[in-house]
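Pinned message: reference record for Renal dipeptidase family protein
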Amino acid sequence: MFICDCHCDTLTELYKKGTSLYANDQHFDIQRQIALGGGLQFCAIFVPTREFRYYGGLRYTLQLLDKYLQEVKKLHVDGIDVLQVLTKEDAADVLNHKAATLLAIEEGGAIDGSLEALRCLYALGVRAMTLTWSNRNDIADGVNEEGSGGGLTVFGRQVVAEMNKLGMLVDVSHIAPAGFWDVIETSSKPIIATHSNAKALCPHPRNLDDKQILAINENDGLIGVTFAGQFLEHDYNDACIESIYRHIDYMLNIMGNDDHIGFGSDFDGISHPPYNLHGVQDYSAVYEYLSKKYSASTVEKITHKNVLNLLQKVL
Ligand SMILES: [Zn+2]
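Predicted structure (tokens):
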């Protein structure tokens, strides 16, 4: 079993609590990931938009980025085989390592309205960015602003073009529908919704409707099914591993193939995880459940191959 997971907020917890990426008592750490059989974890720098609505996010981003780099350095010094994914070649090589991480940003306010800052963050290792959180920033409106009908701003279009050019994954989780469709139209490369589920099963504004799911399929992109209880079930108390399966199965059926679905747990960022899933260690139960439902080839694709393929196309 090798698990690629497109979203977690573990870095925020590590930064605030001074804990370690290798071993901690949060939802995710490398030690449990390796014990499980290995995996690639996207580690997002989440920039809180109430504090940094338009500007001021860059300094905070650098503080979390420093924490990530320090933790990666410690893993190397301790001789733990964890690859930091930076290139297509790295993406092709992930399975030859015990574990891997990919540095991401959640909330485009991180770049403080500057394409220069975006390029510098790329140089520091960032390989994916969620354009907005749920509020408005200078790139686009998030889902909380859906009523405005606002899509990508002129600057937002420049950001998508620059991310395409650099080889950075454009993440549409959290963006309002108008912005979603602008990204579909604008992006020259496959996109990703790192942590979103199916709206038809759970009508939360953060989830994707059928047309959006089909558009990501057409775009050759990927949807990371998320474990947040509120995005899995009407009543988050009912969320369980079977709910995760139901969202996966619904999207597979809509798409008519198994090439564009992965995971985006949102570990360490979710207040209500499924009642029978408490952290990265419980991926074994998810794997077991999916193995009873799908062929080995489909399980392989959902658990890691689809994400690694996408990275090889975009980075
Ligand atoms: Zn999120």
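Pinned by admin. Summary line: Strands lie at 3-5, 39-46, 82-84, 99-106, 126-130, 169-171, 192-193, 222-225, 261-263.
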